[in-house]
């Protein structure tokens, strides 16, 4: 924050606590300040642009212009499956159907999954595997819904130096439930879409390594870069919110 050249503040009144006793905002930074109370604009810091507005009335941020298909992660997972000295831990996620259909595993003790279908199993299992088999690199493959249930454990990875690589296939949804609501309940969606942050920034905030991918072509090189890092990391693989089941797979109809 102290090194930034632009601050966009939505509803922030620049109190003692939010500014670390008024030391966080660089005096040379341009400030765009939005607050519902006009009296707050310029009261502490003079803004370059001041907007008296309800932040909720602002237009939403644009969605990513490009996203990653499910075919590209399936290809890199096959690369991981073929790589000696690497263990893949598979969480329960919508992308799992693509792995079952398109990825083959030939090396013993190289692929582990949750047979009971328990979401959020991936990262904790990968942490235990990394501690038990430190001579091998452990990669956890999760969806964004399952990863969020245990995301706080990434801080443990950083603190305890557990070098788990997390591939988060991020479709901003509980994909399995979304597809059931789409196909079996006439698109009556309820509680299935997520407003996720940037998982790569989340990793960096906690002291790990983070990378974000929004194009198929960038994924292989990003994976190589992340695997070269010594510590825990997250690759945020951004997908369309409706990306999900492979073709020909449909959940049962509701009765």
From TrEMBL:
Pfam families: TPP_enzyme_C, TPP_enzyme_M. Transmembrane segments: none annotated. One of its GO terms (cellular component) is acetolactate synthase complex. Its cofactor is thiamine diphosphate. Residues 95-237 form the Thiamine pyrophosphate enzyme TPP-binding domain. One of its GO terms (molecular function) is magnesium ion binding. GO terms for biological process: isoleucine biosynthetic process; L-valine biosynthetic process. Residues 1-57 form the Thiamine pyrophosphate enzyme central domain. InterPro entries: DHS-like_NAD/FAD-binding_dom, THDP-binding, Thiamin_PyroP_enz_cen_dom, TPP-bd_CS, TPP_enz, TPP_enzyme_TPP-bd. It comes from the Bacteria. Keywords: Thiamine pyrophosphate. Belongs to the TPP enzyme family. PANTHER family: ACETOLACTATE SYNTHASE CATALYTIC SUBUNIT, MITOCHONDRIAL, THIAMINE PYROPHOSPHATE ENZYMES. This is Thiamine pyrophosphate-binding protein.
